[in-house]
Amino acid sequence: MERITAGSATTVVPNSPSLAAKYRDLALVDPSKIHPTVPASSHGVDTQYFTPRERDLSVLDELGLDPSIPIAGFVGRLTHDKGIDDLVAAVTLVHGAKVPFQLLVVGPQDEADSARYSALLRGCPVPVATVDEVSDVRPYYSCMDVHVLPTLREGFPNVVLEAAAMGVPTVTTRATGAIDSVDDDVTGRLVEVSDPRALARAMSDLLSDRTRAQQLGHAAREKAVRAYEPRAVVRSHLRSVMTEPAGVCSKDEGA
Fold it and tell me: Could you tell me where the beta strands, DSSP code E, fall in the chain?
């Protein structure tokens, strides 16, 4: 299906460098058709809308979370491809290492496997708050000390940009797309795909060292402002298609 859609298009626009490389490696399309967005993402991030803010204590109270205990957060669909099995395993390992923390999970729970993962999360040995899809995720990002995305595949994860714009560092994987969203040990941390022990170590490091987490979050915010201004990202997309006839295939999922 990828070869059919890409072959029918005049221009293919991957939304991350690693996804563009995957297209070339798999020989899915003539390389001359590939024009990724710069530096990545489908639309950048509005850093005026997503901006650092103080925690809303009323939100924490509603969620049943303790403001004095660090919070790791996940934002995304509650499904296998987002690495929820690895998240649950890592949470158990971090708890076993005696690192105090809480877990906040925000996102749609309407996938075929969402109910199973909801049950697994409820069984975690730390306090867990789950929130279904919301129209405004900013109050929840502001509650997080660390954002965690143990994804198995991506085109480019917009949630990492949103967290970054709000000054929250992300621990994510080296999966296609996700690897482009974090500068390792600069704006967050990168771990191997499906490695809950490495995920737990990275989570533990940042949950145990609030100063370091804030340093990475500040750097993430600076990069989001500098590199992911929406008009610049969209211009890079348009430059690749404006001179082409109709027939553009824009890719935003991991190949």
Answer: 11-14, 71-75, 102-106, 128-131, 146-149, 170-173, 188-191, 248-251
The token pair at 95 is 């708890």
User: What 3-state DSSP class applies to 120?
Assistant: helix
- φ, ψ of residue 167 to 5 degrees: the values are 80, 25
For the chain, the residue count is: 255
Pairing verdict, β 128-131 and 248-251? unpaired
pLDDT (tens, 9 = 90+) of the chain, 255 residues, equals: 989 999 999 999 999 999 999 999 999 999 999 999 999 999 999 999 999 999 999 999 999 999 999 999 999 999 999 999 999 999 999 999 999 999 999 999 999 999 999 999 999 999 999 999 999 999 999 999 999 999 999 999 999 999 999 999 999 999 999 999 999 999 999 999 999 999 999 999 999 999 999 999 999 999 999 999 999 998 888 877 765 544 556 666 654
Name the CATH code of domain 57-227 (choices 3.40.50.2000, 3.30.70.890, 3.30.420.270, 3.40.50.2300): 3.40.50.2000
How far is 246 from 10, CA to CA, in rounded Å?
A: 7
Structural contact between residues 239 and 11, judged by C-beta atoms closer than 8 angstroms: no
pTM strictly above 0.90: yes
